[in-house]
């Protein structure tokens, strides 16, 4: 039998009444009654818990059968989940509260049920008919009308229901003590007014009975006041009431007036042994922190379960909630930052710092709230990228950069701003103050609290598979530190756990379960946001090592050997490429360890890249672009600056010649360009705000090597030979990835179409670059930043540069804009460009031409093709890259036109495009990344070409 059938089948409910009357008359066991009732309803196909049964039982009790055994039956029905508790409590409130004077026992029993079942929302929402139950409550209490909220979702109704329940108890208590007349309204908006009924007949005039009722009445008032306090103490209901405060401010103001009146005048409140007037005011105060750090994940899960899917935006108002819409702008910004097709002229650190300050001010939260909101948003970002194989462009390293490099720098900016202001107020020099009496502001303490609170979000702290070894090493470092072992590296890369004697080898290390919080703490220690006292936090270290050597070197042999002066052998280079340089060392002093900033390792590599032999320079460049860039999170900002600086090496003192000195560094530059060309690397530079600086370094490289003859070549130590076209292609491809060259410039977007063009034009990037260098270290914020950076990372004094400094690049860019707007100029017959176009077409379609007729010639006539012509074309195409680039748009236009007019089949066009892309100059490889990459789809037995 379906639910719809039972609703309209009175025999089912007649049977329930008969069963209940029989059990009542016999004084039967409530448990037996509940079991029989549940079995009967299940047989009839009634969905449990049943809203119809709840209405039936409450109506049956109030008031013809208001006897103790019936209340016991009702309690068993609630315990066995035959009826929904919240609905039963709502139904009772409309009948019992108005009759509390004449029915004090019923009022007492109602409050007992309230204490047992009003705080268990997390379990009740699992009921299949939970939504129907909440709508029934709305119909009974008229919540939507009273609070004027035109939202009928269960989560909203939960907030209204809890708020109304507390308010009813409050007004009932005020009326019982004669205080309701003192309110501005002089009455309650709830049906709390007493409705005395002559249910007791003439016995009501019995003096002893009246005395008993009066005593119970006073006790009930005290109990009601204490239950109000419980609603504000409970972890779940207190957050629900917090939502009412934030989203129903006008109603909350009236409610608080009633609370203050009760606190000031209530004798019941003064007589309570469980709550005082001051305690009630503190619980209901707007300044009260609704959640403390002790609120663990279980209670937060309960709260989210209650509000899930319906009050997400309001739930965000609650402190510490991981899915808070209060901090939704963090999530939106982080997702935009991960978009590999977008780069920005301003770094994520600066943008995120401003966003965090704005949200903290607008939302009027503490910095602890803001920090925990930021951490959780970034952790969720990492969790969404746990499996990089699902995305054709992996973003895990970029996400980890945001979590472990960018976010600590954001918080460092915020903390330094406060502490610098404190120092300035005291009129003490920053340097001496920090050395002698370090100023620690409130924000630093809030950071500590937020990191400790992260332990409540265990699921978000699970490290992605590639990061598990590093997270375990971070946890092991803390464990060894507390065990008294001197560790010399941030990541313990050289420590062999299996070789450790005692109980610190297999047994202890296997117990290590490092997570992302361990890495976050290490990143904060590296930037002097925390000290090693963080290792003492409860639960941070799960186990200890005993009976182990007192001094284990944590440096990887490669890095320690490097600092001792060992040469860069191939074995050492491979080790340094695969392992990040450490970001700090632990220095033993008496009985304590202190983190000491140390960039010696990465700076040593930079010195080799600048002053070493030719082979050493190439090795150093390879090392810089390895693990120290990708996953050296604690030194990532330094590595990015150093690599950018190396792309514009100074002119040697003994250099002479008309050609650019950059040609002498061709191999070195190519190693750097290849090393930072991956999508993750580009985004890492982007997140650190280095796009304008990087563009300014790439443009001279493109200009120089794009103007070189392809005959110019250099040989790598491996024996591989690279030409000027290779260096140009790598630099130019990287430059194109810094701005969306495949989108029309904004000035060419007309009409009603929304602007989709990119503002990151080469001119704009250069203007930002010039502005950054001109204002470098002039503001207090920049001065603090410059002090944090490596001594080699600060930019050298540089003159502003403009597009006019790169005539070849500027000419190509102007032609590109014309192509984007479909205004490709006519090709002048007989010009040098025309000859290059013909040569490229002959090379692309040489198989077709062997048939005797060139189908794609740009001339009006026809010419025969021969082996000598192909050789001439090959010699003709040994040209500088910029000359070939200028001809490419005309080549593509001619090929597409020939295909459109039937002179070239789609298959032949695809073959010609392939020949062009495989042309030995390699300068055309950037086309595979953007607009003219051919996609071949098989369908209907033939290949079709789509652009």
Automatic annotation (TrEMBL):
<protein>
    <recommendedName>
        <fullName>Mediator of RNA polymerase II transcription subunit 33A</fullName>
    </recommendedName>
</protein>
<dbReference type="GO" id="GO:0016592">
    <property type="term" value="C:mediator complex"/>
</dbReference>
<feature type="compositionally biased region" description="Low complexity">
    <location>
        <begin position="856"/>
        <end position="868"/>
    </location>
</feature>
<dbReference type="GO" id="GO:2000762">
    <property type="term" value="P:regulation of phenylpropanoid metabolic process"/>
</dbReference>
<dbReference type="InterPro" id="IPR039638">
    <property type="entry name" value="MED33A/B"/>
</dbReference>
<feature type="region of interest" description="Disordered">
    <location>
        <begin position="851"/>
        <end position="870"/>
    </location>
</feature>
